Amino acid sequence: MKKLFLLVASMVLLAGQSVLAAELTILTENLPPLNYVDNGALVGPSVEIVQEIQRRVRSDEPIQVYPWARAYKMALEDENVILFGMTYTKVREDKFKWVGPLATKRDILVAKKDSGIKIKDLKDAKKVKRIGTLRDDTRGRLLQRHGFTNLEPVSDEQLNAKKLALGRIDLWAYKIPGLRTVCDLAGVDYTEFEEVYHLREIDLMIAFSKKTSDSIVQKWSDAFNEMSADGTIMQIRKKWNVKLEDDPFPEVKD
Question: Which of 53, 63, 69, 146 is least enclosed, having the fewest CB within 10 Å?
Fold first, then answer.
């Protein structure tokens, strides 16, 4: 009986270790100012939050930068995939497991200041010829659900900044925070642009593929909550608000 108990206990221990040692695929996209590539290095407040969670849960997998459409497909279909920061929506709620929020954003429509475009409601936005969106992003999907047929998706938001500056699109569906940073990275003068319509306010989260073990998600959730309680997340947010003129966390007061 003692040998049987030891055998069962060993199997339980090994199973627990295998869950904790499960290799994770950790993904993000180039999405300034929260997570973006600067001079070949991945930086941003969301990156620092995730890296600190990794340190606390003893996860040493590298964070990989993929185009959003590819990263989203992997998170949707594969096992043990983490993707941040993903916009939390009701449509996505049951497709992933969630930890966060990392930040809150405002989705907006942007135009050139000299365009003369005025948007009072979504009907006005449907009248323009071209709206730049990010491929498989929630802003584009939101507009599609409202019947938009004038969308031009691309793989990187910096392309939309350049296209708007060149007059190749009429509106750009983007977000705040992030407008100034992505324009700077694209070599575009952000002061040429203006917000012409507010779409919504929504949270950005850490999303886990449904095939990820609940125990892994719980460890990440516990670490995130611990960081919220001990002030680590607020310290990171304040640091990046000082570092960037784009104010990734406008709600944070010094």
Answer: 146
